[in-house]
Amino acid sequence: MSTASTQNPVILGHSNQNGQLRGPVGKPAGGQGSGGGSHQTQQPGQMKQASSTINNGTGPSMFSLFFEGWNLTLPPKDMRMRTSDVTATKGNEFEDYCLKRELLMGIFEMGWEKPSPIQEESIPIALSGRDILARAKNGTGKSGAYLIPLLERIDLKKDCIQAMGIVPTRELALQVSQICIQISKHMGGVKVMATTGGTNLRDDIMRLDETVHVVIATPGRILDLIKKGVAKVNQVQMMVLDEADKLLSQDFVVMMEEVLSYLPKQRQILLYSATFPLSVQKFMNSHLSKPYEINLMEELTLKGVTQYYAYVTERQKVHCLNTLFSRLQINQSIIFCNSSQRVELLAKKISQLGYSCFYIHAKMRQEHRNRVFHDFRNGLCRNLVCTDLFTRGIDIQAVNVVINFDFPKLGETYLHRIGRSGRFGHLGLAINLITYDDRFNLKGIEEQLGTEIRPIPGSIDKSLYVAEYHSENGEEVKL
Prior knowledge:
It is found in: Cytoplasm, P-body. It is an enzyme of class 3 (hydrolase). InterPro entries: DEAD/DEAH_box_helicase_dom, Helicase_ATP-bd, Helicase_C-like, P-loop_NTPase, RNA-helicase_DEAD-box_CS, RNA_helicase_DEAD_Q_motif. Pfam families: DEAD (PF00270), Helicase_C (PF00271). The protein is of the alpha/beta class. The protein has two domains: 3-52 and 302-473, Rossmann fold, CATH 3.40.50; 124-295, 3-Layer(aba) Sandwich (Rossmann fold). It contains 16 helices and 19 strands. The chain has an eight-stranded mixed sheet with strand order 2-15-16-14-17-18-13-19, sandwiched between helices. It has a seven-stranded parallel sheet with strand order 8-9-7-10-11-6-12. A two-stranded antiparallel sheet has the order 1-3. Helix 4 (142-152) crosses helix 5 (170-183) and helix 14 (411-418) packs across helix 15 (439-449). The chain is globular, with a radius of gyration of 22 Å. The two termini are 24 Å apart. Mean pLDDT is 80; it is low at 1-16, 24-66 and 471-479.
């Protein structure tokens, strides 16, 4: 597996609110642990970056493949084990959907070899033009499920916005737009634009003065651009709501209704999410025409994520976290708190313990949020402390441990938090620090999600959450 440097290009002080903190140089507190040694020492080049494979050094990081006359540059093959969340397919291939050759080239260069279950169910229906209501687990390929048919239906002869993807957070908008750009790069000029709140409106207006085919946006900003007459959506043929339950909650539903009022009557609407409350049902009944319903949620939690709780007092939480850092084999971790203030306080504590740490929350300046998201995604730091801002759709393959420093109150929030690990059928660990006040909430969430959160053992088996364990031992676990 490739390595990533932990030397940040620019690390400002805590008072600068840029979300990047460094621990003191040298060995972190805690030393070697009994669970496989300390894997938290922040030395340059030691941390494993988000990568689609485990590189054993026998070949280059990229290689060229001449496939049916196509000269493709593919990422290394992903040798990590995967659970049935993504492997229980019908055996379809992307070629079966009669996609444009140029789109297929982009799909294969992303390292997507075969469609996941949600992609198998969704892509042919979306290509037919039908509305879709789809439920699938976090991290099982929902973005590809709607971006592939969306791009296939783009007509490059038309210089107008033809498709929109609406997402609830700025970070998710940047992530989805980047995937869209990557898989469309051979298509000869598909123009993709991300537009979110917190950025310069004038820049967006100038960008929309040029050709744009696909817009990935947060609700408030796209509505603002539509109302100003800058974003002309009268020829939009497809609108996707990713994380639809959040977009149709009280926070956004009024804006979503208004955005929809500007679209042509004959348009396709695709709704994707892991959870679907009554608000989604109401919206579906009002605006979708005989939608095709997909439900791949026989169980709610990912098969590859093992869940534990540690019973602690509030004062013991930081000590417990320090112990986890020293004993777990962490590739990257995301640590959740219930408020922005607690995020910053905990990040400062972690840096004082000797561990490099980033933090992110909604009250930060947008450029700092973008920087933290980009740098953490690229493996420049092992630990990220955040609020629930980071629970929606964020896909960072290297994250194998999620820690709920503060336990959430809602089962839906818990589900989205732990879904940050174990992405695309891989292994992950979710550890919850539970106080006396959380005890009933823990039981309630177990019952609501139909899952088991077990007491944390003295030593956690590496095979439960370390991908390299299976690769090194040639084992495959079927979950």
